[in-house]
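Running this now, will post back.
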Amino acid sequence: MTPAQSMLRAATGLNLSKSVVERAIKNRMEQTSATDHDTYLQQITPEELTALVELVVVPESWFYRDPQAFVAMTDFVRTRLAVNKERLVRILSIPCAGGEEPYTMAMVLTDAGIPPDNFMVDAFDISPTCVARAKSGIYGRNAFRAQDLTFRDVHFTNAGDGDYRINDTIRKQVRFKQGNLLEFDLSTRSGYYDVVFCRNLLIYFDKPTTKAAIAKLEALLMDDGQLFAGYAEVPSFCQHGFSPLQYNQAFGLHKEAAAPARKPAHAPSKALPPRAARSIASPPSMPPVLSPALPVPAPRARVTAPAKAAAPAAPPAAVDLLAEARRLADLGDIKASENKCRDHLAQHPESAEAYFILGLLNELTNKPQMASDYWKRCIYLQPDHYEALCHLALLAEANNDDAGAAALKARAARIYKRQQAS
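Update: finished.
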């Protein structure tokens, strides 16, 4: 790691590549008329460091991004207020980028009929420019990517030239400040927040920084609070004291100490590691194992010609075999689940999803090398298989391969961004 990389990592916590850092330095040297690279770094001021940081942070966001998280948050806030109508629900958004996320929270809660005196959103970002933009409350077309833009007509005023300004009724519900999560003083904010949103930050951290950031977030969150992460970050939280919420596509978590006990359908066929209690009966769009139990969709009915009397019975549909494999794994019958996957592969030898499930099963039975082999086959067959990349990243971290883990996380993050944009 170069001195410049170390300096920016200390300032931001971000695990930045040499090319990204050098590109930012070159940009700032041109703007400040600096001519010598080493002299620029040796004489860098706090103000110049802030300007350099601005070039390496990633303030990408938009209104109503990953909307199921806001649905889950609203349900949770309603439950809080049903117990105590006078309560002030405190919500944290970090990093808040240009303010799209915290303003979305305020809009959603207002539209749900939550009184303004019952909630407040604190929003922090390491970038002063992002905070200034958020405080201005003025946004261009890039911030409005949701399919339904009704909220823009309700909560914004046309500011001309394609820009919109958020209304004061929403602005007053959000307090913006510049700040770095890793430098948070917990003396006055321990257990302070009912809800924390920290999405798509950890994917840029190395293993020690991820652990430190999650420790900060855990301390900020109330013991019975809820935290919402980015899709790529759920596995990391589950490794450090959190369990997933039962909300599809919300990517929400709570502290394991506060997780309600769930009784299995029947006793597992054999003892499994603690992570086996987490279901893999989830659709491909959710992180299996690290997701809550979800019902396996019933196979769609197919219209076929009547079978002839002498014809042999048709083999089970491929989707049925994988659904059955997930169901059996959730019940603890690992061997039967493996057999279903292999039956599926006999019919479809290039099934990435079957290899993915086999990887999960071997992970559950403490066979990390076999799990890794299956997941590598999975991404060989399907290079954009997001979940397999996430699990391989976790294995790389467990093996102290920080560079490999960072590369896999970055690759997964790029895939997720493409999926969201499509």
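Confidence is low (pLDDT under 50) at residues 261-312. More later if anyone needs it.
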